[in-house]
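**Backbone description:**
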Amino acid sequence: MKNSIAIWADNKDDSNDVYIDIDLNLWLSRYKNGWIKSLVRKVGIKFNQRWFYENHIDNYIEFGIKISNYKKIDQVHVYFPYNISQHDIKDIVPELTNITTLNALFNEKMNISQEDGGFYLISSKKGTEKKHFVVSTSYFDKDDIKHIEGEGCLLTLNIPHSKNHANILYKRIRVKKLEGSVTEFSSNNFFIEGLFKKLQTVEININSLRRLPKYVIDRMNGSHKIKSVNFFMMTDIFMNLIFHSQDIKSSRILEEDTWNKYLGIDKSFKGLKKVVAYQWKSPKDIDDYNLFIKLEKTEKRWILFAMSILFIVFFGIISGYGGNKLTQYLDSTVTATKKQDNVQIKKEGGKTYEADAKHK
């Protein structure tokens, strides 16, 4: 199954000192997109009404792409095993200008200042360690996405060069379309349990050659590939992790107000409450990245509760009706049997009974 994402940069001067580190964030909603939401989103894209297709998405995936010695490359390519449009992509760099969001995103105290040419310089100090890098905004149109017939699409990110001395560039994009990586199943051990419990699997594959089409593999040959992946999965606190193929590095509950603003979620929206962030971190100098997670979630909706009560009441009515009919049938059968045993068969013209004749 071709379901791997791929990230690489063209090696234009045969250098070997360009490193790409990935921050990958997966936001999982408690609720699954239904056909109504899917229809609303398609209508919004059709008529170019951004409110529809930006506010009716449940799952997000974000890519933070950190490139060391970035001035040696001009482009970074991201392959998706499904098709996306420019409406599915959002540049997150403008959100980083909010210092509260910036600190929450990197989970440490950061500083940011604006540079020339649409760049921002971000710096931090942790103990004696200092680090700084530049970030730049991205703009997307349909020409940045190349569709591969039957095999997904290729997104190209142009890499601008800053005059700043910092040799690390950071780009961050959000893709509001997620296919193949998250699958949901019903727990059908029992009808009522199946209504309330759902199983969900998350499979993340990056640069996994056996899961990529030949076109992408050929493009990746001799290129600068990823060196590490820092993966975060954000999900509702009621989701239980049943299995994960790698050990969790850390976890924490996210600040509701800060992250709702970051995602552009109104306070009245009830789909994202008490979110837990789980972190997995790969070793350095990897060739590919693979992670499998299995979750179980409990649906807490009034409509499911009402359906369950109606089912129990309906089942009780049917059971009671069937029980009464069965009792009546058994009673009539027993009564008929007793009558048959006691009935005397009268002979014609003799006014005697068969029972009496047997004793004579």
Remarks:
- The longest strand covers residues 224-236.
- The longest helix spans residues 302-342.
